[in-house]
Structures are given as C-alpha cells and as structure tokens.
C-alpha cells in the first residue's frame, strides 16, 4: 500500500529512525536499566546485510523508547501490535487504509497533547503553591525586605561601590535555584562571571540589582510575575518562584552597553 498520509509523531519517529536516528535511540534506551547480556558474535554475508540488520535494530530501539515514553503518559500501546503493523506494511497487507491510519495517528497526537497539557497544568499549580509557601516562610527570616512589586531580598554582604541604573551593563556572579533547592544555572560553576545590560533580564533582576552597591552580595526571592511567569521550560516549571544568590562585581555603564 502506498502511504500518502501526513506522518504524526509516532510515524515520523519511525521514518526518521530508518535514515539515521541511531544516536537518539541510544540516548533514550540508555535511560532504561537492563540486565547485562553477552552479545553473540554474528557474521553477515555482506555489508548490505549488516546495514539492513542495523536499520532494523535501530528502528526497534527507537520504537521501544517511544513506546516507553507513551507508557509514562499512561497510554497502553501494545508492542505486539506495533510489530504486527510493521510486518503487515512490509508484506503489503496492512489492516488499515491510509485514511484510517491517518485518523488513528492524529487521534494519538491529540491524546498525547491533552495528557501533556494536563501534566503541565498540574506541575504549574504545584509550582505556584510551592512558591507561595516558600515566600511566606522566607518573609519571616531576619533581614528580609519585600518591595512593592513583591521582590524579596536579603543582604548577605553590603558593598561600598556605586549602584547601577537600569541602563547600565553589570558584571555579576550568581547561582539560581528553584524553591526546592534544585539548581538551574550558576556562573560560579562556569568559572565565568556574567555580563549583561540590566534592562535586558527578568524584571526581578532589573529591580533587585539596582539596589546593590558594587561589592555586595544579595539573596533574591523572585515571584513568578517578576521572573518567567507562565513560560515553561525543562529546567524551570511555569509559574516558579526563583531564588538567586547574586554578587555584583562591576558596573560598566551605558557606554559599555552600547
């Protein structure tokens, strides 16, 4: 049967694997622990035979990893039926028409998207609650100040240098964590201070660093509306409260920013 339908996530994964997604498959399957198996030495009649076998093995690894990802979302896709579909397609005897297969794959995409959206909402709600609890507790800490915008800060060391304006370029060392202590960024780990115009970063930084004389070290607790808001990333869930340890090393001024 000649396929004419638009490939969905799963179908595209199959096609991409056949033309060179071996490395991705290795990365995914490496996450799954398995008993150590002694590989039997096999010789192939030709390089074509060896390549054909490699394509099949790579395809199977990639399919296995994708099915495991679907299982993590709560979808029960049968390994046996996936294999049956592959065999039937090679035999030219598929049990679904192009249109039926297209509809099934589109329905799968929609289900995956709905589940992912639901999980993202739950994750966001958890981040909101964790942030509110953390800020309420941090507010009770000695020396903590809360500004009108909701930015919270604690002076760990007060310097005696000039304070920057929003238009200045600053040089800082910093460490950023979530409220549970998970670190998502650190200039200390890179052994390289960060340099940037102060009006080009999240609002909590723009406001907070202007409170710091050069030589100071502050701890900032930044609510989501002054951070990344509803933006969701692998490292920072949507609506996260962020904690930063910031050390202001230098103010370069407007000329440097330009």
Which short descriptors sum up this protein?
single chain; 258 residues; alpha+beta; Chitinase A, domain 3; 2 domains; seven-stranded antiparallel β-sheet; 8 helices; 7 strands; 44% helix; elongated; disordered N terminus
The best one-word shape is elongated
What would CATH call the class of the largest domain?
Alpha Beta
Radius of gyration: 27 Å
Task: Quote the beta fraction.
Answer: 15-25%
Structural class label: alpha+beta
- The CATH architecture of the largest domain would be Roll
* Low-confidence residue ranges: 1-32
Instruction: Tell me the total number of β-strands.
Output: 7
One letter per element, helices H and strands E, the order comes to HHHHHEEEEHEHEEH
Number of helices: 8
Distance between the termini: 61 Å
Give a structural overview:
The chain has eight helices and seven strands; from the N terminus they run αααααββββαβαββα. The longest helix has 41 residues, at 98-138. The chain has two domains: 9-95, no CATH class; 140-257, Chitinase A, domain 3, CATH 3.10.50. Mean pLDDT is 85; it is low at 1-32. It has helices spanning 9-18, 22-29, 47-72, 79-91, 98-138, 187-190, 203-209, 254-257, and strands at residues 144-146, 152-157, 169-178, 183-186, 194-197, 217-222, 242-251. Strands 1, 2, 3, 4, 5, 6 and 7 form a seven-stranded antiparallel sheet that branches. The protein is α+β, with helices and mostly antiparallel strands and 258 residues long. It is 44% helix and 17% strand. α1 (9-18) packs antiparallel against α3 (47-72) and α2 packs across α3. β3 (169-178) and β4 (183-186) form a beta hairpin.
């Amino acid at each position: 049967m000649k396929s004419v339908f638009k490939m969905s996530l799963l179908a595209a994964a199959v096609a991409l694997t056949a033309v060179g997604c071996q490395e991705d498959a290795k990365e995914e399957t490496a996450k799954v622990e398995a008993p150590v198996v002694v590989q039997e030495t096999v010789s192939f009649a030709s390089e074509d035979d060896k390549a054909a076998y490699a394509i099949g093995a790579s395809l199977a690894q990639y399919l296995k990893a994708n099915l495991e990802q679907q299982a993590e979302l709560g979808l029960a896709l049968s390994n046996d039926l996936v294999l049956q579909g592959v065999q039937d397609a090679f035999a030219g005897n598929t049990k679904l028409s192009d249109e039926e297969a297209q509809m099934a794959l589109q329905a799968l995409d929609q289900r995956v998207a709905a589940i992912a959206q639901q999980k993202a909402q739950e994750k966001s709600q958890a981040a909101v609650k964790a942030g509110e609890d953390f800020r309420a507790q941090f507010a009770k800490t000695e020396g903590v100040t809360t500004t009108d915008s909701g930015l919270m800060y604690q002076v760990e060391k007060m310097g005696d240098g000039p304070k920057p304006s929003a238009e200045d370029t600053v040089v800082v060392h910093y460490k950023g964590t979530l409220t549970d202590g998970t670190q998502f960024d650190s200039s200390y780990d890179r052994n390289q201070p960060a340099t940037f115009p102060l009006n080009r970063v999240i609002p909590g930084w723009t406001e907070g660093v202007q409170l710091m004389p050069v030589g100071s070290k502050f701890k900032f607790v930044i609510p989501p509306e002054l951070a990344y808001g509803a933006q969701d990333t692998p490292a920072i869930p949507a609506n996260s409260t962020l904690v930063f340890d910031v050390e202001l090393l230098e103010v370069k001024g407007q000329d440097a920013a330009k």
